[in-house]
Write a structure and sequence with these properties.
By secondary structure, the chain is mainly alpha-helical. Among the domains are: about 50 residues, no CATH class; about 200 residues, Orthogonal Bundle (MetI-like fold), CATH 1.10.3720.10. A three-stranded antiparallel beta sheet has the order 2-1-3, with no helix packed on it. The protein is elongated, with a radius of gyration of 32 Å.
């Protein structure tokens, strides 16, 4: 190969060599295996960054996620928002935290030694005499607190709806006077419990129940679908026949039989529903594994002696998770609705538990108290609408055919 030297490339004897020109590649330096070297700190991969942009571009789903998270976080601290115990008391130089610790009434001048009732007039008089400092939650009722001075027979209407006629009725019949009654924003139920307090606690139970049921059932369904789709053959055939038989069992009848044997409870109900809900994702994951097990890179991994578990959960599962993730919000909304329906029918959580379904049932039984039915209806409608909007945004985010332009 001929090389032509220019006169300005010749270095004179004793002169310093010119500095080497700085190399500026058009692409980023490659890391291991030819991949772009990751920048320091956490960053989304390009495909996940595109998904997040698509999710944010769906404004309805994006803001629904934030609203749902705020409501859920608030409900997690329900004891600090709606409780019949003060958050903090300071009396006689001592600090008390009744929300966290159960104190005997002997600490507050009584002699019985039972758990202190902070709504008791004698205990409040004792604290007032000693100029005690009390910090109460905004709603001074727990989910099972009975309102002591209602303005009317239970269920009593919201305090802000009371008019002169209601106040006159209360004064005539010995109910709580309008100037001294406790404030109930959404009224009371037919037992005398504050509706807003039960709504907050019921929302927390519904979301936690739906979340736990969705996570556990999805994990079981993904594993079962992966085993079916990857191995195929007799394994797939026997699993499919078993699922067909299992899903034909009437879920409600089995629930009634088990409920008559076992005491109803949160985890008992969770276990019963888990027996049937795990099949929701099996068909979807099975189809993804059946499609992907013959890909060239999977065949190459098998030829190299990679174990089946590594191929299934490291190489094939990420492909199946795209379709799975789009279904999770819809599965969670279905789980919440199942619990609400069972509570409405009386086959759900134990009697007295705060529940949206139980609130709807009370609204049906007390048509003269429309605030019960309307509160339960709007609570369930808002929760399910938020979950559906989030699910639509997640579906758009994982759809490779959709690319949104953020106009913000």
């Amino acid at each position: 190969m001929d090389a032509k030297l220019r006169t300005d490339d010749i270095i004179a004897p004793g002169a310093e060599a010119p500095a080497a020109p700085e190399l500026r590649p058009d692409i980023e330096p490659a890391g291991p295996l030819g991949l772009a070297a990751p920048a320091p700190g956490f960053e989304f991969s390009p495909i996940n960054a595109r998904r997040w942009r698509n999710f944010k571009a769906n404004k309805r789903g994006y803001w629904s996620l934030w609203i749902f998270l705020v409501l859920f976080v608030i409900s997690l601290g329900a004891e600090f928002i709606a409780n019949d115990k003060p958050i903090f008391i300071r009396v006689d130089g001592k600090n008390y935290f009744p929300v966290f610790v159960t104190y005997p009434d002997t600490d507050f001048g009584d002699v019985f030694g039972t758990a202190a009732d902070y709504r008791d007039s004698h205990l409040q008089a004792y604290l007032a005499e000693r100029d005690a400092i009390q910090i109460w939650p905004p709603i001074p009722f727990a989910d099972n607190t009975i309102v002591s001075k209602p303005p009317s027979p239970f269920p009593s209407k919201p305090t802000w709806l009371l008019n002169a006629k209601d106040c006159e009725f209360a004064a005539k019949n010995g109910y709580g006077q309008c100037g001294s009654i406790e404030y109930n924003w959404l009224g009371t139920d037919d037992v005398g419990r504050d509706v807003l307090a039960r709504l907050i606690y019921g929302f927390r139970i519904s979301v936690l129940f739906g979340l736990i049921l969705t996570v556990i059932s999805s994990l079981i369904g993904v594993v079962a679908g992966a085993v079916q789709g990857y191995f195929g053959g007799w394994t797939d055939l026997l699993f499919q026949r078993f699922i067909e038989i299992w899903t034909s069992v009437p879920e409600l009848y089995l629930l009634l039989i088990i409920s008559s044997v076992l005491a109803p409870g949160f985890f008992v109900l969770l276990g019963i529903l888990l027996l049937f809900s795990w099949t929701r994702l099996v068909g979807l994951v099975r189809a993804e594994f059946l499609r992907g097990r013959n890909f060239e890179y999977i065949l190459a991994a098998r030829a190299l002696g990679v174990s089946n578990s590594v191929i299934m959960f490291r190489h094939l599962l990420p492909n199946a998770m795209v379709a799975t993730m789009t279904m999770l919000p819809f599965i969670m909304s279905s789980s919440v609705m199942t619990l609400t329906a069972l509570d409405f029918l009386g086959f759900g959580l134990p009697p007295g538990s705060p529940s949206l379904g139980e609130l709807l049932s009370q609204g049906k039984a007390n048509v003269q108290a429309p605030w019960l039915g309307l509160t339960g209806f709007f609570a369930v409608a808002v929760m399910l609408s938020l979950l559906i909007f989030i699910g639509e945004a997640v579906r758009d985010a994982f759809d490779p055919r959709k690319t949104f332009v953020d106009r913000a």
